[in-house]
Amino acid sequence: MPFWLMKSEPAELSIADLQRLGQARWDGVRNYQARNFLRGMQVGDLFFFYHSSCAVPGIAGIARIERAAYPDPSALDPHSHYFDAKASSEKNPWSAVDVAFVEAFPEVIRLPQLKAQSALTALPLVHKGSRLSVMPVSTDEWQAILALR
DNA sequence: GCCAACGTTGGC
DNA sequence: GCCAACGTTGGC
Question: What domain range includes position A66?
């Protein structure tokens, strides 16, 4: 079963929010590379929930894919922050998935700690300037990160 | 608030 | 198809 990592701004959706909600739609991805990874996800896949653009950037927990990729409704909603005027219900280039809460770590695994792991040098997340918000995580990387909990 | 890195747009 | 300009991401 493949593993992934996805970034979310906790002001938008945090691991605590997902814990409270149980489930949520993961929408608003507007980058083709990230979208293609979204489309590769299968129900049951696990991912690390990363908090970005916040006081303590890092991995905050684990969640699971509950529904595989489908056309992202937020692209069609004029009131949405993620509205895309070029998208239509016939031709919507963007994808969303549904996710479910699995686990919140007792403490966020902070970015500097992740960057210090030699097992994670290939992970785009730790690369300076990397903006990719959805990425695959190898089994070895998954285990290395789990060991930091 | 700053700024480096990156993706996208659009003129040519 | 090139590439400069621009907008966005995201750590600090």
Answer: 3-146
User: DSSP 3-state helix, strand, coil percentages of chain A (rounded to 5)?
Assistant: 25, 35, 40
| Two structure tokens written together for A109 | 């695994």
Count of C-beta atoms within a 10 Å radius of residue A148: 16
* Per-residue buried b or exposed e for A37-57, using 16+ beta carbons within 10 Å of the residue's own CB: bbeebeeebbbbbbbbeeeeb
Looking across all nucleic acid strands, the nucleotide with the smallest C1' to CA distance from residue A128 is: B5
Q: Report the domain count for chain A.
A: 1
Q: Shortest CA–C1' contact from A57: which nucleotide?
A: C11
pLDDT digits (tens, 9 = 90+) for A92-141: 999 999 999 999 999 999 999 999 999 999 999 999 888 999 999 999 99
Q: Name the pLDDT band for A78 (thresholds 50, 70, 90).
A: confident
